Amino acid sequence: MAESGSPRPTLFLSDLHLSPDRPAAVAAFHAFARGPARAASAVYILGDLFDWWIGDDQLREPFIAPVVKSMRELADSGVALFVGRGNRDFMRTITHDIYGIPSERVIGSTAGLHYQPDDHGGTVVYKAEMDLFDDGPVKPLRIWSRIGRRPILAAGNSNGDIEMLHYAHPGLRLLVDHDDPEREFGYTAGAEKALEAAGAHGWTVISVKDDWKTVFAAPS
Questions:
Q1: Which of 134, 168, 192 is the C-terminal boundary of a domain?
Q2: What is the pLDDT of residues 84-111, one digit of tens each?
Q3: Does 94 share its domain with 7?
Q4: Number of domains the chain is built from
Q5: What single DSSP character describes residue 172?
């Protein structure tokens, strides 16, 4: 825990892609949630938490349940959790019940809504279509609609993050280059335009291969 009177840090996780096929990443997440994260004032979980959509019907699966437990325990400890989900993690409807994260702390894609009148005051129901897909030029709109200000830090890793990086305050605009297939994922396809924009505008490019001393630390 942080010492009394010392500022508590805000911590960020991005694009973890947790999967049973990557046990080191899962172990590192649990170690983080039960260790350093407990000393934080807030933890932001950005991008794709899992490699696939997770719903409440999967909560009892041996791989999913411990992840949910770690997040729930972290939220219950008083650390504020925020989710800026990836394009496949449409999690807002379940984050409070499953993870203990209030829905207003989730920024991202949303399903369409429809008002259905009835004799009991009506109901707002979800439609089987997207309302806003949180990618590209929609990202600045979603950020503004949720926090009402221009972000002082923006970090991305794909062409879909270019507009968000443009929109952030000058200073800390980060683009992660996933160029280390040995320790993580090697995927630069889909980020070519973002890398060009970073060079043209002076954004900071972070190479996983060259700038990360440790990608997945062994759990203590």
A1: 134
A2: 655 334 566 667 776 677 777 777 666 6
A3: yes
A4: 2
A5: E
